[in-house]
Amino acid sequence: ALVSADLAYGEMDIFHRMGPGGYTQFSLANAVEPGTFDLRTLDGEEIPGVTLFMRVHELLEPAVVYDEMVQVAQQLAAELNGAIKDDRRSDLTQQTISHQRQEILDWQHKYR
Predict the structure, then answer these.
(1) How many other CB atoms are there within 10 angstroms of residue 88's CB atom?
(2) Which residues contact 91 (CB under 8 A, 6 or more apart)?
(3) Which of 40, 60, 71, 77 could join 82 via S-S bond, C-beta 3.0 to 4.6 A?
(4) How many H helices and E strands in the chain?
């Protein structure tokens, strides 16, 4: 599922979506400490959750990347029969997505 979402295993033993210039757009970590994945045992593991995150300040178009990250979350949830939660562990709603996207746009306007 992660490979089909164009995520690659890499730095810090987690998965990353790489941009065309070879930079990390966003990352996916194991929700269980220490947050890493061991590829040797991954097939036999039951992973109760993952977390997707991005570094807004390192991206040229963070709102576009955010939209892609949400799409990947939705794709993974559908493929793995999971649920998408927000940072408060509530169901991620369209309203929350819109609010978070606006926060990114506000940040861009303020700091660029």
Answers:
(1) 6
(2) 83, 84, 85
(3) 77
(4) 2, 4
Element (H, E) at 66: helix 62-80
One-letter amino acid at 66 equals Y
What are 55-95's pLDDT values in tens digits?
Answer: 999 999 999 999 999 999 999 999 999 999 998 999 999 99
Separation CA 99–CA 93 (nearest Å): 10
H or E stretch covering 17: strand 14-18
pTM of the model: 0.91
Q: Are 69 and 77 in contact (CB under 8 A)?
A: no
Other CB atoms within 10 A of residue 30 CB: 20
User: For 91, which DSSP code?
Assistant: B
Mean pLDDT across the chain, nearest whole number?
95
